[in-house]
Design brief:
extended; 28 helices; 5-stranded mixed beta sheet; 730 residues
């Protein structure tokens, strides 16, 4: 045999160096022998664990480089094969062997023992299970294999490994996990406690569904479910309380393949060591099986109802009867879901919480009076309310009339005794003193109220012909407590400091009547100037008031909106129906628009000419459009070297009809066959208007007052239009 052997390593495969001395297997004693064995003549076991922490291996390799391998590796002799030519196989210590490969050891200490496959596997499992940090899934698989192949029982595992029975059974339950969930568990996507919750779900497809639901990030926190939330989710969605079952748990014939619930291993009471955290022994962990039994029971119930004359209501009739009885105190029939408060004399211990199903076991229920069958085919039995009332009284959820009356009598007696105890002379005197104080406070409050009303009436009468400037200043300061000036929306209007209440007060104290009135209007209506993407009823009312006030003051709101639209529109976006509005609102830019139309949009040319004529415009000899009310003055004509008589207003329709020819425009038909000329350099307005920043309430901190260069209001003087203000149409 060649001395060049191939062995598996952490990084792959490598050739082993030649061995100086071979240990003869036949010379080994029956027990074990210590030897220094070539690393290349040892192969890993195919039945040993497969997952190793690479970081921990590298740390161990660094330690081995310093001090070597302290504890020998347990190996057993094996027969070499073509695929595995090594003479020894690791039984225990593969982690040390892998770290030795990383440390580039040539050989190392070993203990050689003759072992059968079963013996070797038992040692491997026990060695892995006794590690400090075995993965719970690997531990579970080890327990399972020892019990199946090595004859171990749960009690023997408890004794051998010094573990509790609940720990052993809990780990064994993990073996019920489907492969997909196992992989997620081994990759530490879920914890051991959460994995055990999922393992209780017996249906593989439901396990995968539960895993997805538990692992999904929460919309608010972005984190998966906590253990407590996962426990509640599994118990609610994947477990069923068997005490509420309408069928008999001992009925094995109801669903023969499933058998009786009383003997089913999926019932918590039949595996108490697995379901240690489930308090009830009557919980089904297979909701799919329970649903099948429920359907089978309902089918039998419908057949029995048909034979016994018990009505089964479906469709709209069934929905109406359910609605009229299930949650009404005045109804004569109730269902298991009917809340306790629809019954009389609820016991104080119940706090009026829960429903019929909570307090009555299925075995105590009478025969239904009728059924409702829903769209899914499920039956809901309805019972005589008086009968259920009696059963609830027997169960202690409701009181009998005698018990209720006795309790009420006791309460009334206790209340009377308490009231009598409170009527001692000392307590009566103290109570009378409190009543006197209360009467005095009430009289004082009435006097204060009368004073306030009379004072306000006199103030109102004095202000009938207009309040004084000083009074309006005080009122403005009052409004300022709950409102802000719209200084962000009206940037540049306020030339005084608006950052603090004190500075605004200082301005108000020296402002004139028109400016105080303007401030009041700003405070009351300014909130609606910036929308921030939403409007409430209050802001809408403010806008309605602004529109009404504008009309009273001779301002047309829609005209303002149209002016802003025309001022911001780009030439290429102007439509035919907007031409006349453009000429009327922006007459100074019509010639630029017309040049752009001739250069870029010739099909709109005829419409532009017609619109100009309708608005009374005419064409000058220099191909400039003018309106009669906007003719150049004599000074302008002199400066330009032209005579105003050279451009008379057309006197007849005949001249106006020649305008297309004068400016080289073609008809619609001709335009369709002519390519548009090259684009002319024409100034266009900005296509996007600046939007105000979102408004934020300013902190009203103290600040020193400054001089107030407040602009004159329209009431105090004329307002100079800004360069951006559109010219008014003539």
């Amino acid at each position: 045999m060649s001395s060049d052997l191939v062995i598996p390593t952490i990084g792959g495969m490598k050739k082993a160096p030649a061995r100086e001395k071979r240990i003869v297997v036949d010379e080994l004693v029956d027990d074990q022998v210590f030897a220094i064995t070539d690393w290349a003549d040892i192969r890993p076991s195919y039945t040993n664990r497969k997952r190793f922490n690479q970081t921990a291996l590298e740390q161990l390799a660094a330690n081995i480089k310093e001090v070597g391998i302290v504890q020998p590796i347990l190996i057993r002799p094996v027969t070499p094969t073509a695929d595995a030519p090594q003479h020894f196989e690791i039984v225990a210590g593969e982690r040390r062997w892998r770290a030795g490969n990383i440390a580039e050891l040539q050989r190392g200490p070993t203990m050689i023992r003759k072992l059968t496959d079963l013996q070797a596997r038992e040692i491997q499992l026990l060695e892995n299970l006794q590690r400090e940090d075995p993965h719970p899934m690997e531990e579970a698989e080890g327990f399972q294999e020892l019990m199946l192949n090595a004859g171990y029982t749960a009690d023997r595992l408890v004794e051998k490994l010094k573990k509790s029975r609940s720990h052993i059974y809990g780990r064994l339950k993990l073996c019920a996990l489907t492969t997909e969930v196992r992989e997620k568990f081994l990759d530490d996507v879920i914890s051991a406690s959460t994995a055990l919750l999922i393992a209780r779900v017996p249906v593989p497809a439901l396990q995968i569904k539960a895993l997805a639901e538990i692992s999904a990030p929460d919309q608010r926190t972005g984190e998966p479910m906590s253990y407590r939330a996962a426990f509640q989710h599994i118990q609610t969605r994947y477990m069923v309380d068997l005490t509420r079952a309408l069928f008999k748990l001992s009925d094995a014939a109801l669903l023969p393949l499933a058998g009786a619930c009383t003997k089913c291993p999926k019932k918590t009471g039949n595996q108490p060591d697995v379901f240690t955290d489930i308090k009830s022994a009557d919980v089904c962990t297979d909701p799919a099986c329970y649903a099948e039994k429920r359907q089978a029971h309902d089918a039998l119930a419908i057949a029995a109802a048909s034979q016994g004359g018990v009505p089964v209501y479906e469709g709209e009739d069934g929905a109406t009867r359910r609605r009229q009885n299930e949650y009404r105190s005045s109804s004569q029939f109730v269902a298991l879901a009917s809340p306790l408060w629809v019954f009389e004399r609820n016991a104080p211990s119940t706090k009026n919480e829960g429903n019929t199903e909570k307090f009555l076991e299925s075995g105590l229920l009478p025969e239904p009076a009728w059924y409702v069958k829903d769209e899914k085919g499920l039956l809901t039995p309805f019972y005589d309310k008086a009968t259920i009332q009696k059963l609830l009284e027997d169960a202690g959820a409701c009181e009998t009339k005698e018990i209720y009356n006795a309790r009420m009598s006791t309460l009334r007696a206790a209340e009377a005794k308490k009231e009598a105890a409170a009527n001692t002379p000392e307590k009566q005197a103290a109570a009378e003193k409190q009543r006197e104080i209360a009467r005095a406070d009430e009289a004082k409050a009435e006097q204060e109220e009368a004073y306030r009303i009379e004072l306000y009436k006199r103030l109102r009468a004095r202000g009938a012909n207009g309040f004084s400037l000083a009074s309006l200043r005080e009122f403005t300061k009052l409004v300022l407590i709950d409102r802000d000036l719209p200084d962000e929306a009206l940037a540049g209007i306020y030339t005084f400091d608006t950052s603090s209440t004190e500075s605004i007060h200082a301005y108000i104290d020296q402002a004139g009547l028109p400016d105080v009135q303007l401030l009041l209007v700003d405070l009351l209506l300014g909130d609606s100037l910036i929308t921030n993407g939403w409007d409430n009823e209050d802001l809408e009312n403010q806008q309605a008031a602004i529109h009404a006030m504008a009309k009273h003051e001779g301002i047309e709101p829609e005209e303002v909106r149209l002016q802003l639209e025309m001022a911001s529109i780009a030439f290429e976006d102007v439509q035919e129906h907007q031409l006349r509005d453009f000429m009327r609102i922006l007459p100074d830019r019509f010639n630029d628009l017309f040049k752009f139309i001739c250069a870029e949009r010739p099909k709109l040319g005829i419409a532009a000419v017609n619109a100009a004529e309708k608005e009374g415009w005419f064409l000058l000899s220099n191909n400039e459009w003018r309106h009669p009310t906007r003719l150049p003055s004599t000074v302008e004509n002199a400066a330009s070297g032209t005579d105003s008589q050279e451009a008379p207003v057309p006197e007849c329709d005949e001249d106006a009809g020649d305008l297309p020819k004068q400016i080289n425009l073609t008809t619609h038909v001709e335009m369709a066959t002519i390519e548009p000329p090259a684009a002319a350099a024409v100034d266009q307005p900005e296509t996007e208007a600046k939007k105000p920043a979102p408004r934020a309430r300013k902190p009203k901190a103290a600040a020193a007052p400054k001089p107030w260069p407040w602009p004159k209001s329209p009431a105090a003087g004329t307002t100079t239009p800004t360069p951006d203000t559109p010219a008014s149409p003539q």
